[in-house]
Write the structure tokens for this entry.
Amino acid sequence: MERDAGGVTSPFVPEFVNSPFGDPGVYISLPRLGTAILVDLGNLDRFPAAKIHRVSHILVSHTHIDHFVGFDRVLRLLLGRDTLVKIYGPTGIIDNVLGKIRGYTWNLIDGYPLVFEVFEVEPTTVRGVRLSAATAFSPQPLEAHSFFGVLCEQPEFVIRTTHLDHRIPSLAFAVEEPRRVNIRKDELERYGFTAGPWLEALKEAIRTNAPPETTVTATFACSEQPSQRLSIAELRTKLVEEAPGQKLAYVVDAGFTAPNIERIVDLARNADVFFCESPFVDVDREQAKFRYHLTARQAGSLARWASVKELNTFHFSPRYSGRAQELVDEARATYSGKMDTDVAY
Ligand SMILES: [Zn+2]
Ligand SMILES: [Zn+2]
């Protein structure tokens, strides 16, 4: 894990929840916050309960059973916990969640503090409901708001989404760290400063675009030297190294159509890790097209066009059991330019 002089770790640590032939899903641990984002809710039976306990945000691409059957395990594991979990999904997600919840009887959970907020992402609006265990999950509408691509914006991460065509809407997601602001340890020592909470204040001021004349109180290693208020403009030049933040992109269940390609490439552009489905090999492209899915070659093409740094393919069709390497190789060959990219159908 990367650390800078302020002692800050990489913000996102992603992992697949299943093998590439299992139900799709990625768990993104957020070590700075001690929480996690879970993308898709397929079978989670083998995924550790302790990790599910930390989930604060759930992103559901669509509610085909291989992407939603795991809701019950999440519900069961979180039921007695004092937590608020935000769930985002396409049109219909509120009914889907309520359908699951209404499959059970809830007469003995009055004191339970668990709350879900479920948000339905339509092309231009997001509407939500609040479901509290304390009120037997009876839905309380939340105020709807306009949608311009961003689902959730926090100091630590931004979640974006776009609508893809899977013969139903399927959401693709990007989780991004805001611009990375690191303190140069060598320069910190050279100027005689000492590390401390003031560096966090400096970073926060830069991240939030505070005016350059804003000051923070710097402390010095030499005990004789009193702390001093210095402008962020000056400290930025002396001590700060800035870089784009970490970015993850997740794409599943979408056809290789021109509009989908444009949206995926836009969303995944320059991602550090691109998680992309590749259920079929290129020779079975007609099957892929018929099922509104991608081939490995198409996944490789998208990764190449989006200039991602790393491509991880998954959601392999069981018909290729024992042939996973073929799917991986085809995607890699296209991504690296050894095989021609595909054209939209
Ligand atoms: Zn699927
Ligand atoms: Zn699907």
